[in-house]
Design goal:
Blueprint: E1 8-10, E2 29-31, E3 44-49, H1 56-67, H2 71-84, E4 86-92, H3 94-110, E5 116-121
Antiparallel strand pairs: 1-2, 3-4, 3-5
Bound molecules: L-tyrosinamide.
Length: 122
């Protein structure tokens, strides 16, 4: 039997009570079964959207500062977004992706650029 916390309850009797407090009585043992399968976290793409007003160099700066892109890679992504309308800045766990979006949008707003960034589940 697998209990909700992932433990396997092994019992030499047939009742569901376990432990000596119930009708499991002496000889009832609970052993932990080590987890072998570690679930990978859900991953989320941070997408950047094109607009007509945000300067190209600002987008490149954002990609370098928040997404650890080098100048060439940042330029490549910025031009992809400029031409195609949307592009992937990176793929992260939900909390990290959310933080990146907030950081990008805050800096864009401070600089009065309409740059938009969103999250999409992979
Ligand atoms: N289209 C903008 C311009 O011509 C540049 C730009 C690129 C803006 C990427 C946003 O996500 C963006 N100045």
């Amino acid at each position: 039997m697998i209990t909700p916390n992932g433990m396997t309850r092994m019992s030499d009797d047939k009742d569901q009570n376990g432990g000596n407090g119930g009708s499991g009585g002496p000889g009832t043992t609970v052993v932990a079964k080590p987890r072998t399968k570690t679930k990978k976290p859900a991953m989320y793409k941070v997408l950047m959207l094109n607009d007509d007003y945000t300067p190209m160099e600002f987008v490149v700066h954002v990609l370098e500062r928040f997404f650890q892109k080098n100048r060439d890679e940042a330029n490549r992504i910025m031009l992809h977004v400029h031409r195609r309308g949307v592009g992937v800045c990176g793929v992260f766990t939900y909390e990290v992706a959310e933080t990146k979006v907030t950081q990008v949008m805050d800096l864009a707003r401070q600089n009065q650029h309409p740059l938009q960034c969103t999250i999409e589940k992979e």
